[in-house]
Design the sequence.
């Protein structure tokens, strides 16, 4: 069974840039996996940041961007702010309508 | 403004059943695929099931296949999830999510989310 991999944790300095990745335990991520990214703070519903690799959801600032880097999907946050400190999840379409989430990355801004 | 309001959660015994509902407003409900995503306490997100705009196509995670049934009523703008043979591992907050639109499987990606409803399976 293919697992979607994310860094368990990451830290970034205020104003800095960070790139989170989303990979597969077997194989490469492509645009055909329609990678999407979500931000979640404790006790809150997820917030959609990016879908279909690089399309920002409504209201999401352009300092959040999505891409394919090598064999992984990537979420880049530029000009990190204190309220970016959250859990970030990616999800991939594995074919035939099946979606698999990664385990999430806990981002610390300090 | 898009709004998704889940209801129907609660405490149920193992082996029992529960029906979740999601009331949608603020968008053309019949034009979008819809999904359920869950989150066990202290854990990550898990996709549960998706349904096409016309109800012609349904998809389920292996963990719920054969036990859960997703459905929608486009005349009432509601999405349901019938959950049978519930297990302790089904305990989670269940979120209703609107798709992003389109014509490929990309349309099922999760765009807007409700606040969730808690399902607790315990004796």
Sequence:
């Amino acid at each position: 069974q293919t697992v979607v991999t994310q860094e368990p944790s990451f830290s970034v300095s205020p104003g800095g840039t960070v790139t989170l990745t989303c990979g597969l335990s077997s194989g490469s991520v492509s645009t055909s996996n329609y990678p999407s990214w979500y931000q979640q703070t404790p006790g809150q519903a997820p917030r959609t940041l990016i879908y279909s690799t690089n399309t920002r959801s409504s209201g999401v600032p352009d300092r959040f961007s999505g891409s394919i880097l090598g064999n992984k999907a990537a979420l880049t946050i530029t000009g990190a702010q204190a309220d970016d400190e959250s859990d970030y999840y990616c999800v991939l379409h594995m074919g035939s309508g099946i979606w698999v989430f990664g385990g999430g990355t806990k981002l610390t801004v300090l | 403004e898009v709004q998704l309001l889940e209801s129907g959660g609660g405490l149920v015994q193992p082996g029992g059943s529960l029906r979740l509902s999601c009331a949608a407003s603020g968008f053309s409900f019949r034009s979008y695929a819809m999904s359920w995503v869950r989150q066990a306490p202290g854990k990550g997100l898990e996709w549960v099931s998706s349904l096409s705009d016309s109800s012609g196509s349904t998809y389920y995670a292996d963990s719920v296949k054969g036990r859960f049934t997703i459905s929608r009523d486009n005349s009432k703008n509601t999405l349901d999830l019938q959950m049978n043979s519930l297990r302790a591992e089904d305990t989670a907050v269940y979120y209703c999510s609107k798709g992003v639109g389109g014509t490929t499987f990309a349309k099922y990606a999760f765009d807007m989310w409700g606040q969730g409803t808690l399902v607790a399976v315990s004796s």
The interface with chain B takes residues 34, 36, 38, 40, 45-48, 51-52, 55, 57, 87, 89, 91, 93, 95-104 of chain A (CB under 8 Å).
